Structures are given as structure tokens and as C-alpha cells.
Amino acid sequence: xxxxxxxxxxxxxxxxxxxxxxxxxxxxxxxxxxxxxxxxxxxxxxxxxxxxxxxxxxxxxxxxxxxxxxxxxxxxxxxxxxxxxxxxxxxxxxxxxxxxxxxxxxxxxxxxxxxxxxxxxxxxxxxxxxxxxxxxxxxxxxxxxxxxxxxxxxxxxxxxxxxxxxxxxxxxxxxxxxxxxxxxxxxxxxxxxxxxxxxxxxxxxxxxxxxxxxxxxxxxxxxxxxxxxxxxxxxxxxxxxxxxxxxxxxxxxxxxxxxxxxxxxxxxxxxxxxxxxxxxxxxxxxxxxxxxxxxxxxxxxxxxxxxxxxxxxxxxxxxxxxxxxxxxxxxxxxxxxxxxxxxxxxxxxxxxxxxxxxxxxxxxxxxxxxxxxxxxxxxxxxxxxxxxxxxxxxxxxxxxxxxxxxxxxxxxxxxxxxxxxxxxxxxxxxxxxxxxxxxxxxxxxxxxxxxxxxxxxxxxxxxxxxxxxxxxxxxxxxxxxxxxxxxxxxxxxxxxxxxxxxxxxxxxxxxxxxxxxxxxxxxxxxxxxxxxxxxxxxxxxxxxxxxxxxxxxxxxxxxxxxxxxxxxxxxxxxxxxxxxxxxxxxxxxxx
Length: 591
Hints:
CATH architecture of the largest domain: 3-Layer(aba) Sandwich
CATH class of the largest domain: Alpha Beta
Shape: globular
CATH superfamily of the largest domain: Aldehyde Dehydrogenase, Chain A, domain 2
Number of domains: 3
Number of strands: 20
Structural class: alpha/beta
Strand content: 15-25%
Strand order of the largest sheet: 8-9-10-7-6-11-12-20-14-13
CATH topology of the largest domain: Aldehyde Dehydrogenase, Chain A, domain 2
Radius of gyration: 24 Å
Oligomer: single chain
Largest sheet: 10 strands, mixed
Helix content: 25-40%
């Protein structure tokens, strides 16, 4: 992979795209043959297996399109390591590989130890489509194999989907070195979530229950996006829960090769034991747990019956339970703001659902919640590539989103920074302060809010927002000014030490409003660095050792730039417009 990197990078973007599209066509042609290994190895139902192949096809075509649009101007990283999970052994496996290949990188792919056969089939399809053997290699094994690969200095970037804990271990290993160009090793992590849905008294209970069943229990709850916490306004909680328990009793748990099966097994005996231990702890804590007994036909597998656990406080949920377990919390109408704040305080930020027919509530909650994917009056799983770009922030991941416009940006050299939308007119005060040279490398990036293509009856908005606060660390006044300019251009606060503030000297009032004082224990969302190698190493180690969200450290590129698009969070808001009383688009079609 490392030796072949220049050869694959030299293949024109149009040709790389054509190869990925051929792979997508082959996947579609071989769908029926792929279903059996997905069902057997990952325990997926027929419907979920079909959905997974379709998603893999979508990823291949989407990244082919992105690469074609970007052309050959951007330099790739080199060899990229892709570590994928067992819960989407084809779709995420191929998504990571396709993104890396599309950007011109070679790939070492480490599939989950539970699903090597699906990975082997996927690699064979890529080869048949024309991906050279040296451009993508699969290495199977347990977590130890992945750890060895992460530690290899030839690896110039890592894509990972899995647990938050493993993501931290990878970040710590990568902090030990830089890329060949002297930057921090790019790390794209998509981790778990404590995903919540809020249901108010205006919501339609029948629709809520259908969406909750799909969100919490489809794929046996083994999706990163799955619903873990259902918050129901107490005025309608009894009715909603009674309906939910009745619907739960109708779900068929069993062998996924049977068409009548709604829920298959969880992935392993260890996973089952972890889920059962959590349910025992919840019962011991006095929580009401609704769970049907396991049917005799399921006695010899790793089956877990779907469970509903009624809780009185979010604080009893320490970490994500990855399985068919839904926690239900009642709330009073006046507590909705505090409830959203409590969900944010969990530290995750992946998916969130809201069921209400009150537009003011939608606006209020959407503005307050901090997650990557927001779903209004619909289920919160099954994000469609390019329609609902998927990925979170905080403890849920680093960004950029999979199946989104910035997906390839982290897989290229920092000098080839890309942005979504047009840069705004340079700020005259900022230009006068830091000078035209810095401003030439720092285009103003206002928040983006655009409607993506999607089905009639649904509106999907793609938005960017400032990440929050960036630490500015430079040894010169010019270096600090470039960092403050990068923060101002992206709407972020710029954290500066007392010494840095003194070095900056007089700052004009509009820009001074972006500055905040920084002390070593303060939390920041990203770090901008301009200085020597030793100081850079110390900084990387210090932030990799911090608990909580992974904090990216960006070094100033040779051309004076920072990756501005990565200093903003992306989010997608998906609204079912038919739920709140009709859709004007549908009415127009009627004639």
C-alpha cells in the first residue's frame, strides 16, 4: 500500500471515479449472493441485509462523484488505514475504503474480527472492478492487529468506526508521530451515541410508536444511530407507553433467515451478557423493565428480547448500551429546555429525534440541541448517503460526516483545503488588522444552510456551525494573528494565554470580542499551532491524554493556511413535512 501510493495517486480522478462506479454496479448485480453472508455473519434480517448492500452502492457512487468534482488538484495523504465495525460490515467497510480511494490514497482495511467473510467478498468486488491489488489490502484479525497497524509510521491517516474508548486509544497512538509533511496524523472517528428522542403532547402517538420501534429495535438496536432514550411528555406518557408495550409484543425475534423475523440476534455472547447485566442493574435500581420471555426457538443463539426500561433521571445512564434496550423518561412541558440541556450534557452528539406538531417547538429545540443528525417527526435511523450526511461530534466523533460534501477533505493534504459554499467578502476590520497576506489564506466562512435533494414529503437541510472555541498557539505575533483570523473567519472564539494576549498587543474591539482567556485546564474544541517540532509533539500528547471529546490539533500549512472547513461542525436536519398537517409540494402534484 505504501509503495503503491504514488502510483494510485497518479491515476486521474475521473478514472478512479469510473472504477468506483463499476464496483457499485457489480455490488448491485451480486446483491442476492451478498445477502447470505451478511445474514449469517452479522445476524441481519433480510430487509437489513438488502438495505446494507444498497447503502454500500450509494457510498461508492457518492464518493466517485465527489472525486470527479474535485478533480486532480488535491494531493492525497498516502497510505490510509480503515478500521470498520461488525454492525455494518459491508456498508461502512466500503464507505471508508471508497472515500480513501476516491481521494487518491491507498488503503489497508482492517474489518471487524466478527465479519471477515463479508470483507473478503467486498475486496474481491473492488478488484474485479479494477482497483489494483496494491491499492487496497485487507488485514483480518482482532483488536491487537488494528493496534499494530495504527502504530505503523507508514500509515498517514486513519478512519475508524467503533467505540469511543478505542477511538481514544488510537488518538493517543497517533499523537506519537506526524505525517511525512509534519502535520498531525489525520484521524476520522465515528463513535457511539446516547441518542434521544423528545415526544410532546401534540405528537401523533401511532406515528411515534412506529418510529420508536424502528429507531430503537431495528437491527436489534445495533446501530450507532439507534434510539437509546425516549423522553415523553407526562401528559401523554401512559397512553404512549401502553401502545409501545402492545406493539413490542407483536415483534418477532428469531433466526434472521426467516422472512417473518423482525429482530435477529445480537452479535456475540459477550454482547448479550453485557446487555443482560445492564438490565439486571436497572431492575436492581428499582426501574420498571418490560421484556417478554425468550421463545424456546431462540434458546440456542445470542438473542436478546427487546426491552423498555423506565428511568427517572438521565444520570443513571453511564455509557451506551449497544442492543435492543430503550430507556424511557417522562418530562413536564415546562422542562423541555432543561431536558435538551441535559441531553447535551451527556457529551455525545450523534442523532436526535423530535416528535411535535408545533413549529415553535421545532425551532426552539433544533436551535438548542447539539448533535450531527436531527430528525423531526420521523425515525432517527437509516441516514441516506448524500441526503442525510451522517456523523456527530463531541464523544460521538470527529467529523467530517460520511456521505457529506466534506468527506474527502480530511483525506487530503492540508494545503488542499476545501470549503462548502462560497466564501464571504473579507471583513474590513480584520483585513486592516492582520493584513492582506493573512487574509488571502483565510477566506471568511459564514454558516452554510442549504437544502439537499431528497424525497417528496421530506426536507433535508445541511448546515455548518462554528465548533466553539479554538486554542491559538504560536511563537510569533504574525502566527497568532493568522490563528485569530482563522477563528474569526469561521465564527469561533479564539482562546489565548496571557502571554499570547500580550504578544498580540492592541486588538480592535470587533475582533477582541472573539478572544477568550485560556488556562491549561480549559476545554477547547480544536487547537491551531504554529511553531517548532518539539512544542508540537508536547501539544499533541497533552491533548491526546485529555478525557472527553477528541480534540484535533491543526498545524499551519506551508502556504499559511489552516483547514477552515474543519473548524466548523456539520449537521443535517431532516423534517417529515407530511406529519405536521400536509405538504404543499404534494398538493401541487395533485393537479
